């Protein structure tokens, strides 16, 4: 249920409403917007239906949330969420998160070289996988904790927040020690235990859309994280499977404005995994920003032919810099900012 408060509702009345909701065994969640203050209540439908919520002083109306995802919906929170990923970098609400780096962390030297180049080009979040979800068990599986240490170290030296994938609930504690943002990969979008586990942390989560997941499935997965109390969720469109086989996946760009209609969470677009083809990435990155995405996620490697994972789709540092030049112009046109990580900030 959403309780819409009257514009002149006092703090005492809000407190009283919250106390009464708690007394019913339910949990109120206050959302103070620019226009209106709302109280979201999620709980047993029966208790909610019978509770006289509309009779409390200060209440204008009570509306059911009809969507299956509640905390993720704009009914619950009309304003865009802005996720703070550290070092002054915000994603959402007009602020673009530019995630870049290699698919996998391979060594300190390689990550540093790529990291320096993408930082220089304007990226504000460094990526790199230490646990890689590979289709073949014989492919490189990632450097594990050693890779996480390198990522943290390089991110610290460059002054960039870092994002890395966590694949299993048992890895959450470990990855939490080194990363600024958890990445939940496409293959784990419906690993509900993993979603609940990261939901119990206070660390931002970048949740990638599963390759066979509908928009509704993605939002329900986000709901798992939000339901545990972690509100810092960034969605990521990375392409879905279809009959089309000339690109690695099919980039569903329409999902960006589609999701934004009903959900307040920021959404970034990953044209690297979506197309799998470097020559298509610049156009799709521009289309993403023009279409209202809150950022772009691009894989970059200084020597794609030697990359241990996803080399064929990596952009070279120069190509990335060129893409970023275009994205900066678009950001200006659409009155968005690409925040620079604050030097010295944590
Ligand atoms: C990745 O980001 O390297 C990755 C494995 O992405 P996805 O989960 O979207 O396939
Ligand atoms: Mn990859």
Structure write-up:
- By secondary structure, the chain is α/β, with parallel strands linked by helices.
- It has 2 domains: 2-63, Phospho-2-dehydro-3-deoxyheptonate aldolase, domain 1 (Alpha-Beta Plaits), CATH 3.30.70.1140; 83-333, Alpha-Beta Barrel (TIM Barrel), CATH 3.20.20.
- The chain contains 11 helices and 14 strands.
- The protein has helices at residues 11-23, 45-50, 108-121, 145-158, 172-178, 192-199, 215-227, 255-262, 271-275, 281-290, 317-333, and strands at residues 2-5, 27-32, 37-42, 59-63, 83-86, 89-91, 97-101, 125-127, 162-165, 181-184, 205-208, 233-237, 267-269, 295-299.
- Helix 3 packs parallel to helix 11 (317-333) and helix 10 (281-290) runs parallel beside helix 11.
- The chain is elongated.
- Manganese (II) ion binds at residues 103, 273, 299, 309-310.
- The site of phosphoenolpyruvate has 9 residues, from loops.
Give the helices and strands, then pairings.
Blueprint: E1 2-5, H1 11-23, E2 27-32, E3 37-42, H2 45-50, E4 59-63, E5 83-86, E6 89-91, E7 97-101, H3 108-121, E8 125-127, H4 145-158, E9 162-165, H5 172-178, E10 181-184, H6 192-199, E11 205-208, H7 215-227, E12 233-237, H8 255-262, E13 267-269, H9 271-275, H10 281-290, E14 295-299, H11 317-333
Parallel strand pairs: 7-8, 7-14, 8-9, 9-10, 10-11, 11-12, 12-13
Antiparallel strand pairs: 1-3, 1-4, 2-3, 5-6
Bound molecules: phosphoenolpyruvate (PEP) and manganese (II) ion.
